[in-house]
Amino acid sequence: IGNTVLHILVLQPNKTFACHMYSLILSYDRNKEGPGSLELIPNNEGLTPFKLAGVEGNTVMFQYLMQKRKHNLWSFGPLTTVLYDLTEIDSWAEDQSFLELIVSTKKREARQILDLTPVKELVSLKWNMYGRPYFCFLALFYILYMVCFTMCCVYRPLKPRTGNKTSSRDNTIYVQKMLQESYTTYEDELRLVGELITVIGAVVILILEIPDILRVGAAKYFGQTILGGPFHIIVITYACMILVTMVMRLTSTTGEVVPMSFALVLGWCNVMYFARGFQMLGPFTIMIQKMIFGDLMRFCWLMAVVILGFASAFYIIFQTENPENLGQFYNYPMSLFTTFELFLTIIDGPANYDVDLPFMYSVVYFAFAIIATLLMLNLLIAMMGDTHWRVAHERDELWRAQVVATTVMLERKLPRCLWPRSGICGREYGLGDRWYLRVEDRVDPNKHKMMRYTEAFKAQDRDNYDKGLEKLEINRNIVYKKPSALSLSRSILRTSSHRGWEILRRNT
């Protein structure tokens, strides 16, 4: 019952009342430090009151709980060294990491905890000492891996075509080699080494990604932008395309260019994932993700309807015409592709002035140009501009959350020997087996003194403002009008509070 009440207090809107009641309930707890403490009992979702405060974005309760866990090590003048308990904060050996819970929640208030002590100092320590070097090395290794895969695709085994052409539009001069013909020369053996590296890399990607999907869940794993959800879809699809290409090569099946092309596009697009390690590029990847999976996905439905309608009309119009004179609409698939190019204004309207064009072509193309180019493309630009404006206001906050998610991911994937535990063991200071983070804080007494002066000057300003209002009401010869700060500026300039403000500005 006591643990349930603690969880309810974390969700209370009255933060001051919740903190006092929280302390009152814990004062009756007999096991304050042991494993049976009320603060360490999780709810049905596996969240303790401390983790629940972080997930809900209750910064007041979080700071209150952290003040209870800190230990003042020493103090000398304005300098103070504090030890913060990292229990439930550090993601080391945690199945449900506190940092991962914060970055995966949909509440924006929860991300504000990343700027609070000691979470900010802990993340900075992990990222600067281990996260950034490992992440940069991983980015370099992945780029070299993609260069290897690209070279294997460029020099894939091909041979001249021997069969006769069946159509005048057939332009194929090379075909894929059979498996027995693909690895005969020294160059083929070098390419084989690169292909083995590519396949091994795809298998490693699947081995690293599948356990996280099973642990977190597909919806949460792929749906969170901060956790890199779209990039996880890209890299898993890339690995699957590599394995499909390998099977087609081993069985000598023609058409390996299809999965190979998809793998090249997806593999190189995944390089953008590593932009999150740099403050200059990280926020822009978030904008791209939100535009693609938000604005562009909705726009594609409208675009598909327009393209299907006008492509069908163009195909019907040119169905009776000679395709050699105007071949952009000679069959239905080519008509769809040509209409898509016209929609994006990649090409101009196809026309052959040596022959007579159908009259309906001019009418349909005029309507298509108005709807597609003038209306829908400008609608897409407006939607993306609105998304850019919304994301720009919180891009730095989102980038810090990306850094936290990347740090937790690397800490979970890398061996313990490459990522030692952060902080100081409490046994060094007689505080038990818990781990602590040492933070040095500087308290400026002048800052607090100026804050007291500011409050006093504000009170004097309010008094002078009220006196000015009374004088205006008493004076009957002046027409009454609603006073403003400008009408009272001359009287306020002569007050002692204004002189106090001037002294405060100069001292600052």
Automatic annotation (TrEMBL):
GO terms for biological process: calcium ion import across plasma membrane. CDD domains: CBD_TRPV5_C (cd22296). Keywords: ANK repeat, Membrane, Metal-binding, Phosphoprotein, Repeat, Transmembrane, Transmembrane helix. It is found in: Membrane. InterPro entries: Ankyrin_rpt-contain_sf, Ion_trans_dom, TRPV, TRPV5, TRPV5/TRPV6. GO terms for molecular function: calcium channel activity; metal ion binding. Pfam families: Ion_trans. The keyword rRNA-binding does not apply. One of its GO terms (cellular component) is plasma membrane. The chain crosses the membrane at residues 134-158, 192-210, 231-251, 257-275, 296-318, 359-381. Residues 135-393 form the Ion transport domain. It is a multi-pass membrane protein. Signal peptide: none annotated. It comes from the Eukaryota. Gene3D superfamilies: Ankyrin repeat-containing domain. NCBIfam families: trp. PANTHER family: TRANSIENT RECEPTOR POTENTIAL CATION CHANNEL SUBFAMILY V MEMBER 6, TRANSIENT RECEPTOR POTENTIAL ION CHANNEL PROTEIN. This is TRPV5 protein. It comes from Anhinga anhinga.
